Amino acid sequence: MTKANIILTGFMGTGKSTVGKLLAKALGYRFVDTDELIQVRTGRTIAEIFNEKGEAAFREMEAETARELGRKSGLVISTGGRLMLDPDNAAALGETGRIFCLKATPEEIVARISGDAGAERPLLKGGDPIERIVGLMREREAGYARFRGIDTSGQTPEAVAKRLLEAYQT
Ligand code: S3P
């Protein structure tokens, strides 16, 4: 039996990687984080890629990663916050399994991201973080709404992983 992938999308800081790791462990699946994969392969951080090559080059790396992972199964895939909003990426990965979109309030996202010192988010740099998050969320709202949403506000990663597991198995 092929094991359908679980693809996690949603805004930065909604817990895709933290929850994805727990979920992969519970299912005995391999965990893959698209940002991580890109960083290991390029030997650069996401912030360095944005600075040195620009956002368009980063988005092309994401597309390549989506095409590659779209040929695999038995994975829990945490995707960068915009990756699944690209229709070609969503098609490539969506055919391999189930997609869930994690949600959180801007306030909670700020709190989570500030505790995540190693993962600088170039798109949130400069200005008031809440304002930037609200603006970007508004732009992306319709895109995220295409996927099944899971609210993570006020919940532990373990509780969210449990809900995802139930949703995946039903
Ligand atoms: C981005 C999200 C980031 C990373 C990059 C761009 C976005 O990933 O891919 O900074 O456009 O939402 P996370 O969602 O894992 O933070």
From TrEMBL:
* CDD domains registered for this protein in UniProt: SK
- Source superkingdom: Bacteria
Q: Where does Mg(2+) bind?
A: 17
Instruction: Give the UniProt record's GO annotations in the biological process aspect.
Output: amino acid biosynthetic process; aromatic amino acid family biosynthetic process; chorismate biosynthetic process
Q: What EC numbers are recorded for this enzyme?
A: 2.7.1.71
Its annotated pathway? Metabolic intermediate biosynthesis; chorismate biosynthesis; chorismate from D-erythrose 4-phosphate and phosphoenolpyruvate: step 5/7
Tell where it localizes.
Cytoplasm
- Give the required cofactors: Mg(2+)
Q: Which PANTHER family match?
A: SHIKIMATE KINASE, SHIKIMATE KINASE 1, CHLOROPLASTIC
Write down what this protein is called. Shikimate kinase
Species in which this protein is naturally found = Desulfococcus multivorans DSM 2059
